[in-house]
Amino acid sequence: QVHLVESGGGLVQAGGSLRLSCAASGIIFNSKVAGWYRQAPGKQRDLVATITKDNSTNYADSVKGRFTISRDNAKNTVLLQMNGLKPEDTAVYYCRVFNPVLRSLGYWGQGTQVTVSS
Description:
Shape: globular
Radius of gyration: 13 Å
Oligomer: single chain
Low-confidence stretches: none
Largest sheet: 7 strands, mixed
Strand content: over 45%
Number of strands: 11
Mean pLDDT: 96
Distance between the termini: 41 Å
Order of helices and strands: EEEEEEEEEEE
Helix content: under 10%
């Protein structure tokens, strides 16, 4: 059984930082793409960042230069360091691990709330 467990969300003031963590189990993590997505109230779920097994990264334009995604394959963990947070970053953040070829074949975490106040 595959499990993705996120942690690190919370309430922070604008300009502050948070680090999100996602621990995966029941999956061959090091062969997969890992990523973070977010969904604000009334909005669709959007890509934040992804990272391949070879540590190639991709970021949404809205977070580029502020967020950093990384992974530790030995620990089956993907991290998202978020700096310079803005109120528009407020959303539920979801971890996803998926097949690099069949990208619709993957797994979601339950989500963690990030709230940025002004």
